[in-house]
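User: Please fill in residues for this 279-position structure.
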């Protein structure tokens, strides 16, 4: 089996190198499976591309514009991989995710290609769940068996050739966030199951922080952060996502609500800082 590993990076040299190092140390690599890595350099200025070339010359480096962010970077990596050959599987991998040695073997062990298998991650600091699959809007914790979920993050995601041919690429309408949720929800509508692997696949620290579009000193700064590609709640993209999966009325309601919260941030309760498509 040949797996195309898709990664995008921006100025996290040490983490990117550690991610690649652990990827190439996976158990049964070159035995059960082989990998070919497609890494998008989205405007790195910290020497990441040079370091990757020096340490992992087998990696296919793709020059990004510097304004792709995660979703569009992953889209470009996938397009490039597809132009190379038809792979058996595609593995999405965040460059700050550090795989455990059996991660890929475990994800491959589910013997049905009409599924997407998500690898869950946990924090190395406190060992708590950080990213993975969600059932009824609650984090699904690995229990030693494959479990079906409703949607998932894309930090570690194994996608078969069959699923790709049905569901296609990430939707490039999204800059940074929402692309992974959108992809798994679209797949589910096509009858493709979304599963999490039996065990945690690696370490990745959770990046949930108070949104800058709620904490800026002025309405102008808050709006600037809200409409930045990395905000996670960019109104036009958020509207497309909600309309596609939850209907026009909810999309319109949320579109209006986001702007009300920008204008009156005190309405936002401090206990609910984690803003997502499902709050």
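Assistant: Residues filled in for all 279 positions:
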């Amino acid at each position: 089996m040949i797996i195309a590993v898709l990664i995008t990076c921006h100025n996290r040299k040490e983490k990117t190198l550690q991610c690649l190092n652990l990827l190439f140390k996976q158990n049964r690599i070159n035995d059960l499976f082989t990998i070919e890595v497609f890494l998008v350099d989205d405007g790195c200025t910290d020497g990441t591309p040079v370091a990757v070339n020096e340490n992992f010359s087998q990696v296919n480096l793709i020059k990004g514009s510097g304004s792709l962010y995660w979703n569009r970077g992953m889209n470009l990596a996938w397009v490039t991989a597809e132009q190379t050959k038809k792979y058996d599987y595609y593995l999405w991998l965040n460059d700050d995710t550090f795989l455990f040695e059996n991660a890929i073997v475990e994800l491959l062990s589910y013997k049905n290609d009409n599924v997407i298998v998500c690898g869950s991650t946990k924090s190395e600091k406190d060992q708590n769940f950080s990213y993975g699959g969600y059932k009824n809007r609650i984090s699904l914790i690995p229990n030693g068996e494959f479990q079906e979920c409703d949607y998932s993050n894309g930090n570690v995601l194994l996608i078969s050739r069959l699923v790709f041919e049905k569901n296609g690429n990430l939707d490039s309408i999204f800059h940074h966030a929402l692309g992974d949720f959108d992809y798994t929800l679209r797949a589910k509508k096509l009858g493709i199951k979304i599963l999490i692997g039996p065990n945690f696949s690696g370490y990745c620290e959770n990046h949930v922080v108070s949104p800058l579009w709620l904490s800026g000193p002025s309405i102008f700064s808050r709006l600037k952060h809200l409409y930045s590609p990395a905000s996670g709640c960019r109104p036009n993209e958020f509207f497309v996502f909600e309309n596609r999966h939850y209907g026009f009325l909810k999309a319109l309601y949320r579109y209006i609500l986001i702007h009300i919260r920008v204008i009156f941030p005190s309405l936002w309760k401090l206990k609910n800082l984690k803003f997502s498509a499902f709050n």
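For context: The chain has two domains: 2-203, 212-272.
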